[in-house]
Amino acid sequence: MIPKKNKIKKIKDFLLNIPKILVKHFFITLFFLLILDLILTGVLFYKYYLQKRDLEFQSQVFGLNEKLLNNVLEEWQEREETFKSVDSKQYLDLFRF
Asked: Containing domain of residue 81, as a range?
């Protein structure tokens, strides 16, 4: 039982001393983080740019739902008319008697 407590205390002390160790070896820590960042950026660049560029896009034929398209266009026109009607509306000037 005693050795377990002793091990746990050593681990706790080590974890609490990690920030002190990193500050003492600031240049090495900074260099390590820079290398880690460059590796991570390189992996993401390769995955999302270089791999996708090699793929040829296949053209797909999309079918349009005419009824849905007409409903959207009608709604759009109604909103545009409402928006334009606001400009022509005359409001009362509250500061003029």
From this structure: 2-88
Separation CA 81–CA 87 (nearest Å): 10
Q: How much helix, strand and coil, in percent to the nearest 5, is found in the chain?
A: 75, 0, 25
Helices and strands in the chain, H and E counts: 4, 0
Residue 96 inside a domain? The answer is no
From CA 27, how far away is CA 34, in angstroms rounded?
10
**Could you report the per-residue pLDDT of 2-27, keeping only the tens digit for each?**
678 888 899 999 999 999 988 899 99
Q: How many domains does the chain have?
A: 1
Taking the C-alpha atoms of residue 43 and residue 80, their distance in angstroms, rounded to an integer, is 47
- Asked whether 8 and 14 are in contact (CB, 8 A), the reply is no
pTM of the model: 0.42
In a domain, 41, yes or no: yes
Q: Measure the CA–CA gap between 16 and 82, rounded to whole angstroms.
A: 64
